[in-house]
Structures are given as C-alpha cells and as structure tokens.
Design a protein that fits this description.
Layout lengths: L12 H15 L1 E3 L20 E3 L19 E3 L21 E3 L6 E2 L14 E3 L4 E2 L15 E3 L20 E3 L20 E3 L22 H5 L5 E3 L7 H5 L4 H17 L13
Parallel strand pairs: 1-2, 2-3, 3-4, 4-6, 5-7, 6-8, 8-9, 9-10, 10-11
C-alpha cells in the first residue's frame, strides 16, 4: 500500500510493468491496462517509437509528456479520471488515427476549451462522459473521422456543423437525451450506420409542418448511404416511422444491401429500426 505515484498497486506489480516496457521497445505496442496507475510511468515517454498504447482502467488524471510519442497511432485511455483540461497534449500526436477516452470526466461546455484533435483521427470514442454539447473541435471539416461514438453522454441537440464530417460512416448517439436531428445530417454522404437507442425522439402527429418538423430529416434517409438505423427505446412506434418522408427510400436501400448479405449467408435483422 505504500507505493505512490506511478507505481502499480495491483498484483501484476512493478516487475511485470518493467517487462512490458522492455517488450514494447521491440514491438512498439504497450498495454498498461488495470495497473492502478495514477500517472504514466516516465519510462513510457522514452519509447518514442510506440505506435499503440493502452492505458485504460487506471486512475490517470494527466497524460504527462504523451506529446513526445510522435509515432503513436492508437491511444486508449478509457476508464480513467481525465478532465477536459488534461487533454491538451493529444493535439500534438500528428499520426494518431484512433483515440478512445470513454468513461472519464470530460465535460463540455467546460472551464477549459476542448483541445484541437490530431489531424489524422479516424476513430474517436468518447462514451460515458458528461458532454452536454458536441465540441466544435470534433466537427472540424479537416478531420477524417469515420467512426464517432458519443453514447452515454448528456447530449440534447446535435449541431448543424456535424455535416462537416464528410468521411463519417458510423455515428453512435445511444443513451443521450436527443429529441431531433438537424437537416444538415443529410449532407453526411458516407454515413451507413446511426444508432440512437434510448433517446427522446417522439412524434405527436405525423402531419409534419414548419412548426412541428419531422424529428429525423428526410434527407438523412434519401441523401446518405444509411442502412443501419437503431431507434430502440425511443417513445415512438414503427408505424409512425413508416410515415416519415424519405423513409421508404431508406427501406428499399437497406433491403437491397441486407438481401445481398442474406444470400451471402449472414444473419440479418430486418426489424423496423428496433421499434415495435
């Protein structure tokens, strides 16, 4: 119990960490998950050739000198205690393509600005935080984000700027408090999968008007590549969804893709987007 700072506190011990650090010098891959770390060991920053680093399930409040790891392509910091103010160093990881920061203490709006994201990030995972809005830094048109996970936050609205993510293929917004989606989402031309489980999308009447617009825009169904849409746990029915403008176009596209997969031997869910 006397070990402090970056010393591991669980049964794996210091010897295992030392062994992993030695191996990482050869493989450029390092996993220090579940080591009870309160800070990143200084030796990690000396392995400047590291390409993959897993620091998940520790007690990290800071990323230290992680900006020194210029070759890093994948960084997993899930299940730590990182605040928004601690993320600055990741901006300098110019080769990073996968960044996972699930189940931390990230907030937005926050006292500190959300950092500029590395320019090559393709997968960004931020589930289980306290985001009440999507930081504009995530919607930067220069970013090549293909997969974005913002599930289990406190998002009520999706900004129109989400349309800047021209490369986006998969978007997970499960378990938020979203009530509707902006028309601009129809500009996500490559979007194939959208999950909105357990949100608050509802319909009073399907006689939509300017004052009572369709909560899921028709352009999302007609102008994207969407084939997977999950609305399970929202207060609406499949009958209501079937009356949405553009929905038949989505159904036809999905049917073609799913039937093709079915002929290929894959198990396919043909239910209406998780709704009864």
């Amino acid at each position: 119990m006397g070990n402090q700072g970056s010393q591991p506190r669980n049964k794996t011990g210091k010897r295992v960490v030392a062994q992993k650090l030695e191996t990482a010098k050869k493989t450029n891959i390092l996993s220090l998950t579940e080591h009870g770390l309160e800070e990143i060991p200084e030796q990690v920053f000396q392995i400047t050739s590291l390409r993959t680093l897993d620091l998940s399930k520790n007690k990290l409040q800071s990323l230290g000198k992680i900006s020194q790891l210029k070759e890093l392509k994948s960084l997993n910091c899930d299940e730590n205690v990182l605040a928004t103010s601690s993320l600055g160093p990741i901006s300098n990881l110019s080769k990073l393509t996968t960044l996972s920061l699930g189940k931390n203490r990230l907030e937005h709006p926050a006292n500190h600005t959300f950092p500029t994201l590395p320019p090559k990030v393709k997968q960004l995972k931020l589930p289980g935080n306290s985001l009440s809005s999507i930081p504009k830094q995530i919607c930067d048109p220069k970013l090549p984000i293909e997969k974005l996970d913002l599930s289990f936050n406190n998002l009520a609205a999706i900004p129109a700027e989400i349309c800047n993510l021209a490369s986006l293929v998969e978007l997970n917004l499960d378990n938020n408090v979203v009530v509707s989606l902006p028309n601009e989402m129809g500009q996500l031309k490559k979007l194939k999968a959208l999950s909105l489980k357990n949100n608050y999308i509802q319909v009073k009447s399907t006689n939509f008007s300017e004052s009572d617009p369709q909560p899921i825009p028709a352009s999302l169904f007609t102008d994207t590549l969407l084939i997977d849409l999950n609305l399970h746990g929202n207060p609406m029915t499949s009958t209501q969804l079937n009356e949405f403008e553009g929905f038949p176009v989505f159904l036809e596209r999905r049917k073609k893709v799913k039937t093709k997969n079915l002929h290929g031997g894959a198990l396919v869910d043909m239910s209406v987007c998780g709704l009864k």
